[in-house]
C-alpha cells in the first residue's frame, strides 16, 4: 500500500506537471509556429484597422486573427492564475480571483497541490533555510539551518527592546479593551497594546492588526511594559485566551461598556484626564468565558493560583500520575454518559426481572475520576449536577474544537489555536503529552468535530496494543500514506471554499454548518527521509485548518517544545514560545488512555446505526460486575412501627421528623452517610464508608470526616426529635448501621413493593403493585450526589423498576389492558430512553386498535432521541411499519 500510494501520488503529480507545462510552454510555441508572434512589427493606424475590419473576410484572415487573439489572451489569463496559485502556495494563503475564472482556478489549485506533494524537492517550498520563525518582537528572523537550533531561537533572547514583553493569542470574543483591563487593570490602556502589536507578523492566513476594532481568532498581540509617571509597570504573564461569542458592533451612541461605563478612563497616549473611549468591538461579555469544550473557564483576574472561580481546579492529577485538564475530563464524561444511555436503550424491559444484578459495568478508574471531576465543577459553580442525558444534550450543540488547553502556567490555563497549529515535542515528557492531546481530540471527534491521521508506528507508541476502530481516527502505515490522505482533503476543502465563495474554514463552517469539516490534525514522527514531505504538508495545511503534532523536533517554522518527564516545558522556540515558556503541560499514561479509549469506543456504538463498533478487550475492572440487592428494611426487634425520623432518598436526600424537614445542624457529609447506610441496611465498616464517601482523601483525613459525620448526625437527630438516648447510628463490633426502629426510609418501602410485585399471584395483586411502585418511585435515587455507589444504584434501581413494571404489564395485558398500558407509560416516564418499553407499548396499543397512540408513542421516542442527536433503531422503525400494516387482532 505504501509504494502504491506513493506511485499514485507521483503519477498524479507528473500528469499535473505535464499538463501545466504543455499549456504554459507548449501552447505558446504552437501558436507562434502557426501564426507568428502576437506582437506586431509596428502599431497600425486607425485607417488600417478599419479597412481590415470592414473588408469581406474571404480568405479567413480576420477569423484566424481573432482566434489568435483569444488564444493568447487565454494563455495570459491561465499563466496569471498559475503564478497566483504558486505564490499563494508559497505564502500559505487562499487567493480568491473573480468568479468567471474560479473554475479554472480550482483546477490549477488542485494541480499545484498535486505537484507540490509529489515533488517535495522544490527549493522554494522545501528549503528549511528559507523558512521564517516568528519572534517576540513580531518580525521574521531567519531560521537556523539545523532544526535543533529552533530551541535557541527564543525571540525574547534576541530583541532587547522587548525583553520581558509577552505575546498572547487572540481567541473568539477577545477585545483589546478587555485584554487591557485584565492585564493592566484598565481598559484604557488598549492603545498601547495596539501600537505594540501592529508590527507583529501574524500566522499564515490571518491579516495584520490594523484596526483596534477588528480582532481575529488566532492573531497574536504583544503586552508591552506600561510606563506611568516614570515607573515601569511590567505586564504580567499572559493567561489562557478566553473563549466567548464574538462581540457584536454596537450602534452609534449606544453605551456598550457594561458595568465599567461609569469609570473615568485616562488615555495612555497623553497625561490629560480625558476619558478614553474603548474600541467599538470591546463590549464586556455578558456570560463567563468558556473553554474549547464548552465548560466555563476563569478570567485570570478572578483566579487564585491553580484554581478557577468557586475554588474549582483547572487541572487535576489522577492516582496513576496522569495530569489532565477539564477539557478532557468533560469530553470523557460525555462519552461515559453516552455509553450509559446506549445501554439503557438496548436493555430489554421486563426480561429477567428477578435476576437484575448487574446495573452497569464499572468504568475504568481514570474515566470515573475524570467524570467526577467534571461533575464537581458544576457543584463548585453552585449549579445542579447534570444527568447523563443533560450532559449529552448539552454536548450536542458543541462546535468543533478550534483551540485546545494544553496545560497551565502560573496556575492559569494555557491554550493554543488548533487552526494550522504545528507543534514539535521532544524530551521525556513528549509522548505522555501527545497522548493527552490526542485522547482529548478523539473524545471530541464525534459528530465530525475532529479527525486525527496518525502513522502506524506512532499510534503504537501512543497507545500500545490498540485494537478496534475509533471515530475520528485514521491510522496510515507511513507518512506517505498520510500525505495521500491529506492531499484529498486539501483538494476537497479548496473546492468547497471556492464553491461557497468563503475565505477560510471558519467562514465555510458558518456558511454551511451541515458540511462535515472536522478539525484535522496529523500526528507523526519525522526522519530525514520524511522531512520534506512533512514540511510540504505543514505549508499546505495552514490554508485549510490542518495542523500537525510532531513527535520529535519539527521544522524550523513550527513551535518546538522540550518537555521533562512531568510535563514541564524546559525549552521552547517558535511562534508560541512566549506563551509556552515555563508552562506545565498535561500528560497521560498509557493505562489511563486505554481506559478512556474504551469508553470513547462504547459511546460510538449507537444502536440507531445498526452496526455496533467492535467491543474493546475487557480489563480486570471492567469485567467485574457490581452485585446489587434491594435494600430490604431490617425487621425491628420489638415489632414497633413508629419511626420518628423519615429519610427520603428518592430525589434529593431529605431528612425530616414529625415537625418537618431538618434544615439546620445536619451537614451534607452527614446526609450522604445516612444515605449510604440506608443503602446497606445490614451495616458497613468504617473503611467501607470512607472509601465510598471520601475516596480522594488520605485515610487519616477520611477517618476524621467519618467520625465528624456520625457525630453531626447523632447531634442533629437528637436535637430535632428530642430523643436523647438513642444513637440513631448503631455500632455493633466493626459495623455501623441505621437503627431500624427509628428510621422510615422511602427506598426500603419501594424495595418492599418491588418484592411484593414479583410475588404477586393474581391480577388484583399485580394492579395494586403497579400503583404502589408508581406512588413510591417519584424520582431517581440520591439525585445530585456524585458518588460511584450512588450512580450505580441509581441505574440499578431505575432498571429494576422499569423491568418490574414491564413484566407486570405483560401479565396484565390480556385481562386488564388499561392497567398494562399505565404500567408501561410509567416505565417510560422513569426510563425515557428504553426503546424496548416503547415497543411494548406500541404493540399493546396496536392490539387494542389505538393506531393514533402507536404513532404518538413512536413520535415521543423519536423526539426524545433527537434531543440526544440520534434516532430510533432500525428494529423500532420496522415494528412501526409492521404495526401499521397488521390488523389489530393479529398484532404480536
**CATH architecture title of the largest domain:** 3-Layer(aba) Sandwich
Terminal Cα span: 52 Å
Classify the helix fraction into a percent range. 40-55%
**CATH class bucket of the largest domain:** Alpha Beta
CATH topology of the largest domain: Rossmann fold
Please, how many helices?
28
Strand order of the largest sheet: 15-14-16-17-13-18-19
Task: Work out the count of structural domains.
Answer: 5
Low-confidence spans: pLDDT under 50, at least 5 residues?
A: 121-164, 227-311, 353-358, 612-627
Tell me the strand percentage band. 5-15%
The value of Rg in angstroms is 34 Å
Q: Based on DSSP secondary structure assignment, what is the total number of beta strands?
A: 27
Instruction: Tell me the structural class.
Output: alpha/beta
Average pLDDT over all residues: 76
Q: What's the main sheet like? A: 7 strands, mixed
Envelope shape: elongated
Pfam family, one: LysM
Biased composition (Pro residues): 286-298
Domain LysM: 166-223
Protein name: LysM peptidoglycan-binding domain-containing protein
Provide a compact summary of the structure.
By secondary structure, the protein is an alpha/beta fold.
Mind explaining what this structure looks like?
With 892 residues, the protein is of the alpha/beta class. The chain folds into five domains: 116 residues; 122 residues, no CATH class; 324 residues, 3-Layer(aba) Sandwich (Rossmann fold), CATH 3.40.50; 157 residues, Arc Repressor Mutant, subunit A, CATH 1.10.10; 106 residues, Serine Threonine Protein Phosphatase 5, Tetratricopeptide repeat (Alpha Horseshoe), CATH 1.25.40. Helix content is 44%, strand content 12%. It has a seven-stranded mixed β-sheet with strand order 15-14-16-17-13-18-19, sandwiched between helices. A hairpin with a 5-residue loop joins strand 9 and strand 10. Helix 6 packs across helix 7, helix 23 packs parallel to helix 25 and helix 26 runs antiparallel to helix 27. The two termini are 52 Å apart. 45% of the residues are buried. About 17% of the residues have low confidence. It holds the Pfam family LysM. This is LysM peptidoglycan-binding domain-containing protein.
